[in-house]
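Slack export, channel: ligand-projects

TW: morning all. Re-posting the request from yesterday since it got buried. We need the structure predicted with the small molecule present, not the apo form. The ligand is pyridoxal-5'-phosphate; the SMILES is in the block with the sequence. No rush, but it would help planning for next week.
GE: picking it up
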Amino acid sequence: MASGDNSTLFNDSLPYTVPEEYKNGVYLDYNATTPLHPEVIDTMASAMRKLWRNPSSTYSERVRDAISKARAQTSDVIGAKPEEIIFTSSGTEANNWILEAIVSWASELRGLAEGKPCIVTSDIEHDAVSKKVLALQAKGLCDVKMVSGAQGGRVNVRDVVDNCSENTCLISIMLANNETGVIQPVAEIGQELIRINIERTEKGLKPILFHTDAAQAVGKIACDVTKLNVDFLTIVGHKFYGPRIGAVYCRSEYMSILKKHPFLWGGGQERGYRPSTENTVDIVGLGQACEVVQRNLSDWASHFYKTGSYLKDSLIETFGKNLDFNFPVLSEFLLPNTFSVHFVGKEREGFKVLNQAEYLQASTGAACHSGKTTVSIVLLHSGLSKEAAKNTIRLSIGRTTTKEEIDITIKDLYQAVQKLTGIFL
Ligand SMILES: Cc1ncc(COP(=O)(O)O)c(C=O)c1O
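GE: finished. pasting the full token output, ligand included:
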């Protein structure tokens, strides 16, 4: 169907009808959160019944075994060792802790040149990184160097390297962006860091540590800490059909940093790294979700690719030049499930379009509160114009998204834009 000839889209009838099962909405917001996988529900339900005892008590061997199993399942999915995993309440906590602990560690170091420790990060990180580094900077605890993501939403390896100095203690660059889906050159930065850290050791300087926030990557693309050459990595369960908790991966040789600089103060749980009675139910759920990813990643990836291609083709056929893809979709640098698009022109703001949509549930690049529109900084920093960012809709598909759901989405978007602008595209 060519753009401008949408006569068959609705068989000349509006409103269109959708099957009963989609009446509650078509969910294409899987980057925001995912439902629990059925195997995860079963594991958690069983844990609720059987594994409720205090893990620290002598009689709770079964509970401790279940937590150990979850630790091994979680480490497996990222190619780490079980002892390198610490469970946290969320991805936000994991990111905050890693950043704060490394700044504290670096501040204490002897042999560091004069000046504060410095973090090199990007201007397209999730708030759980960017706001934390800015808070540490505002407290006078560190300096921050931000590299730009403006070239197609992807940071440049050279920029990262060039921003490192003697005082740099940490590089924190996300593995894949939640809004744009753009995969960052983490493995390439990791390779550069090997060379840089050899030179630093020769000069008697401590190595620069490397953290990646992999919240959006696990369950969508392969994540192996040894290939990425990262020292710290953030895992977020509810982005891959697990519960709403997180985990920190920390390379064995740096575990002492986290032990010495806890984020919370309290009891000796989680082997003394993180206090608070272990959340067994969510921990075993996270472990199960990781195991499900291990078993299914290639099937999910091909589903994302097939369904994503169908979505892309349908958007192009239906909307033609009225709709732009913000980033080159289905490329090796993009998550296969994420489609950041915008309708071209006035009165086509993403939130207005979605307000008119009957079924589609997705995210937008701008929000409107009390008549004031706030545009996503990440999209602007990823190189989009203000209008493109304002008009952006992020469609993120899941492992069960069907072609039928894509068909409804297309019709819904079409009628929404028509209602909004009064024009047939
Ligand atoms: C890239 C990224 N990092 C961190 C987080 C924070 O996760 P949570 O809200 O579960 O703490 C998110 C969640 O949207 C995310 O997308």
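GE: first-pass observations. Residues 280-319 form the longest helix (40 residues). The mean pLDDT is 94.
TW: perfect, thank you
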